[in-house]
Amino acid sequence: MEIWINPACSKCRSAVSLLDEAGAEYTVRRYLEDPPTAAELEAVLARLGLEPWDITRTAEPVAKELGLKTWGRTPEDRPKWIEALAEHPKLIQRPIITADDGTTVVARDPETVRSVL
């Protein structure tokens, strides 16, 4: 299992604590220091069953600079969104947990974290 975190994020710290309490084996990826590639984002999105705009933090200052709220949300727009997430990892919703069985979640609440255990 792998968890993508920003250590400054309280939801990320909470998710890590829940994994620790459960005795789960996992690796931590500090995705701001080790950003995912476009291919890794594609794979995570496929596992999540989501589109890139579904995991984008549109309230971030860089999102406003890029004008993300005005971007299209069609299959043709998908590569542009993925490129933005790869170039600006701060835009990626967190934490994201990828379990060994293929389950992948955006673990913003304790119930979702527990769903991968």
UniProtKB/TrEMBL annotation:
Pfam family, one: ArsC
Assigned keywords, A-Z: Oxidoreductase
Alphabetical list of InterPro entries matching this protein: Arsenate_reductase, Arsenate_reductase-like, Thioredoxin-like_sf
Keyword set includes Nucleotide-binding: no
SUPFAM superfamilies linked: Thioredoxin-like (SSF52833)
Superkingdom: Bacteria
PROSITE patterns (UniProt xref): ARSC
Gene3D superfamilies (alphabetical): Glutaredoxin
Keyword Ubl conjugation: no
Protein name: Arsenate reductase
